[in-house]
Design brief:
The chain has 622 residues and is an alpha+beta fold. Helices cover 55% and strands 20% of the residues. Helix 2 (31-46) runs parallel beside helix 4, helix 3 (48-66) runs antiparallel to helix 4 and helix 15 runs parallel beside helix 16.
Amino acid sequence: MKGRFSWWLGLVVLSVVLLGLDYLTSPYILFPVTLVIPVCIAAWQLGWKSGIGFAIVLSFFRFAIVHLGTEADFYFFIDLVNTLIYFVLLSALAFLFDQIIRQRREMITRLRGYADAVASFKEQESQKGEQFQRAVMDNMGEGLYSVDSQGLVTYVNPIAEGLLGYSAAEMLGRRMHDLTHHHYPDGRRFPIEECAGTRVLHHGEALREFDDTFIRKDGTFFPVRVSSSPLRFGGKPVGLVVVFRDMTEEQKAMEEIRQATAQLHELNSTLEKRVAERTAATQEQEERFRSAFDFAPIGMALVAVDGHWLRVNRALRDIVGYPESELLATDFQSITHPDDLQEDLSYNRQLLDGTIPTYQMEKRYFHKDGRIVHILLAGSIVRDAKGKNLYCIKQIQDITARKNSEEILFRSLREKEVLLREIHHRVKNNLAVISSLLFLQSTQTGDAEIVRVLQDCQNRIRSMALVHERLYHSHDLADMNFADYVQDLAQQLFRTYVIVPHLIVLNTNLAKISLNINRAIPVGLILNELISNALKHAFPNGRPGEVLVASAVTDAGDLLFSVSDSGVGLPDDAAWRNPSSLGLRLVTSLTQQLNARFEFVRLQPGTEARLILTSSDDSIRS
């Protein structure tokens, strides 16, 4: 209120002064000034209403001063109209000026509000930035601390606390060099002048990623990698920030990597040496293979899967008479005899299909001069790691000379076989003549004992003749089917000695055995004596029974012949252990000649005679 009164008082004084000046001067010179200035000041300080009020008071006060004591004339009304016009204009001016002043004040107020808001925002952002920076430094994966220009710790993040073993309270305000750098690992004192942080503070240049050693609170040393950067204010370093990380595990890893690298280098050197050795060995083997291939005494060839020659050695070229260039331009089919080609191609298909791993056959090639060359061919296949057929390896041996010798030998053997068959035939015929003579002689005597002796001799001769007859008809002149021989011999003796066939039954159980002539004749004679003895003496006075002739191979591989009967049996053991008859003496002698065993076994009823030939006798084949 006091302020408004002062303004009003001031404006009144100003108006009086201005009106006095206007009155002393021409009424039209200062009139605008006397009205405008007070009105504008009133509108500025007291509002537009006060400005209009001043405009009314001043306008009519001036009009009253100017026309005081004058008559109303034309100029009186003109000035009154002007005064009214001035009043309207001054009122409008006061209102407009007041609005301008209000707008400026509002603008200033808004600007101040904006400025305050900006300042508040900047302060908040600054606080957030500081908080963010603090959070980053606290949570970064490396240790961080800052010191001032005196080397005293001003900040330590939690990672640094954990690595150094100190709490932040123990480090803040203390010199970091005295905590982490006071000695070398070997015990020598570490001068602060040599500290990297001191150099950064003095020179103002950052040190990036250098290796150092820190000391923990417990006195242990550990390797670190450090970066030190100066903090500047006004262009001068006022402190530094140190970032470090523990290199213990990394150095261990680097040492392991170094050792692994050294081992790898050593292994690589060893491998290179082995590769060089194996390369040299492979080259040597290839050279040996090449030499062995080229100079092999038999033909060697590498053949493509379609039959084309890929590589041939000298021996093969000599066998077929073709030079290498001509052979490599053709295939094996073109020089193979037509009668042998299909068999060879069949083997090749089985080889390529994997049905057989190798094959061998005899075939014929055409020599370049047109003659036929007999060869023994062996073939195999080479495949890659995936099983794909690469090429065939063929071994070719010239057997022409051998085939010619075989042909000559075969013809000779055929001639000797014919001659040997003729000998067996003639021996059989001669034995048959002797048997017939004995039969004729037996018909010329009336002595029964002489007839019996002649008949026994006749049977023995027949057993030998039967061997020669079997060999004469056999495909193999060296061995004979002894089972068929024994069957015929038993049937022949049965027909000779058995007068009443239905009383005595002859059975056989014979294994398939082959004997050569050196064993067949003595075994045949022994069986002849045993079967004859059973048929003559086992069934006296019309006694019925059975005779069994058997042969078998024992588990030990020995050959067993047996003749058993169900007759009266032997009178005593002495009769055959000390034989007096020619038959038993013949059996004993032939058994010793065969290096065999002979024995009698008593049956209930009857007797079994056994002849055992050992398996060591190479004349026996089962």
